[in-house]
Write a structure and sequence with these properties.
Elements lengths: L2 H21 L9 H4 L3 H27 L5 H15 L1 H30 L1
Helix pairs in contact: 1-3, 1-4, 3-5
Length: 118
């Protein structure tokens, strides 16, 4: 197999990963800046995920051009890389959800302290 075919396959998978990532962004129901504020963690998650996938794509591109030929082991290593890359958005989304859950008890304590102080 030529390097061009492997690169085209990987580019296609990475393009699909990026497309799926952007589909996670939901449009708010109200056209105000205040409606965008709750979406900030999701947008930052998308931004960081996009940059990470872009860095991986760039490194992958340079790695393929450095190699002389594609072996069976390289094909399996590439599939392994693409598998874990495809799970990155899931892991990043899970961390955002966990952070929101971690912040909720702190907010309750903060509100209780503010109510007592008033």
């Amino acid at each position: 197999m030529g390097k061009g075919r492997l690169e085209a396959f990987s580019d296609g998978v990475i393009a699909i990963i990026i497309t799926i990532m952007v589909l996670e962004l939901k449009v708010p129901h109200e056209p105000t800046l205040a409606a965008l504020l709750p979406l900030l963690p999701v947008f930052l998650n998308y931004l960081l995920s996009f940059v990470y996938v872009g860095i991986c794509w760039n490194n992958h591109h340079h790695m393929l051009h450095a190699g002389a030929k594609v072996t069976g082991a390289a094909l399996w290593a590439n599939l392994h890389f693409l598998f874990w890359l495809s799970l990155f958005r899931f892991a990043a989304g899970w961390m955002v959800a966990a952070r929101v859950l971690w912040l909720e008890p702190d907010r309750r304590i903060e509100h209780a302290l503010l109510e007592r102080a008033a």
